[in-house]
Amino acid sequence: MESDLLILVPVFFFIAMIYSSAGFGGGSSYLAVLALFHFEFTTIRMIALLCNIAVVSGSVWIFYKKGFLKIRKILPLILLSIPFAFMGGRLKIEQEVFFILLGFTLLIAAILMLLSKSDKAVDLPKYSNAFIGGGIGFLSGIVGIGGGVFLSPLLYLSRWAEAKVIAATTAAFILVNSISGLTGQIFSNGFQIEYSTAISLVLAVFFGGQIGARFTAGKVNPIMIRRITSVVILLVAVRLLWMYLPNFF
User: Fold this and answer.
1) Which of 34-43, 68-77, 177-186, 205-214 has the highest mean pLDDT?
2) Measured distance CA(39)–CA(16) in Å, rounded
3) In b/e form, how buried is each residue of 152-169, taking b as 16+ CB within 10 angstroms?
4) End-to-end Cα, the chain, rounded Å
5) pLDDT tens, 74-120?
6) Sequence-distant (≥ 6) Cβ neighbours of residue 223 within 8 angstroms
7) Cβ neighbours of 86 (radius 10 Å)
8) Which residues contact residue 217 at a Cβ distance below 8 angstroms, ignoring those fewer than 6 apart?
9) What is the pTM of this model?
């Protein structure tokens, strides 16, 4: 396990730094990396959610201090996502089919984000925000991620708000869903992580996340933030399809 941590700690630090610059926690990449090591799937999901919480809790605080966290816009999104993420976290699923569908969905979203030119913000009806948040929360709880890779492209494609507000919203959404999903998993399976492993990886992603979030909250061009987000989502999609599509046939 110690030899594994020598690899995992710097890798997780780098993932957190890159993903937090787009408001993400990095959960999907933690899942992919941990799948290469000898961990149970339930343990992998818990580690991913713990790391998500460590990354985005710092990001949310930084975005809040900078004034990019719009509580009234976020509340409808998280209204149903919290209980649905809890319910999703309690389910046990086969991962291959879901990750393949996720990969294709993210691939399309990333391409559309890269091609989109408009930055004009529009408001979605509050009830639709609630249903969107609930659906994403449920899927996120099942898989063991915070849901940022679902929510962020949707907000960008609908021109929901400016880039830094979307990054802040994504971070807050990931935080509440990761906490809820992790709670559901603990209720279902108990806490199945060695404390030394959890502490090492959580510290690595926390410091990496601080660097990435401060970069985004500073004087960064909104178009650059959107481009970073779309590239990150594209990389996640390609990696998921590379890992799971060959096993499906």
Assistant:
1) 205-214
2) 20
3) bbebbeebbbbbbbbbbb
4) 33
5) 888 888 888 888 887 777 666 676 677 667 877 876 776 676 655 55
6) 119, 163
7) 21
8) 62, 63, 66, 68, 164
9) 0.75
